[in-house]
Amino acid sequence: MEKRSLYRAAHQAAEAYRHDVVQRMGQGHSTAAVAEWNQLRFWLWVVDRAIEHVEGKVFWHECGRRNFSRVSQRPELETAIRKLRKLQSRLQVDGLPTFKQKEEILRELARCANLLLE
What is the pTM assigned to this prediction? Predict the structure, then answer.
């Protein structure tokens, strides 16, 4: 399986997002689009890549060989992955949480994400 780089893929994802925003809203929004991706979208994107890695779908070099396809060895990671997806959904789909709710969601999301990688 080909090893991929999170850094390169993140740059490509940020550029694709910037391009999409510029196409819709104009060149003047280019810098703001990159800043938004870095501040609001990057970490959720990385969590998705870590999930791909531990599930054995994509080998991300930065996640390490030891963690690749680890979900088959540690079934409790399936629970963490389900919880991560639920928390991501709460942030993206379920409306605007209060600041306190968002902090709690992000804290739990970080806790679950940290279980994925050693």
Answer: 0.88
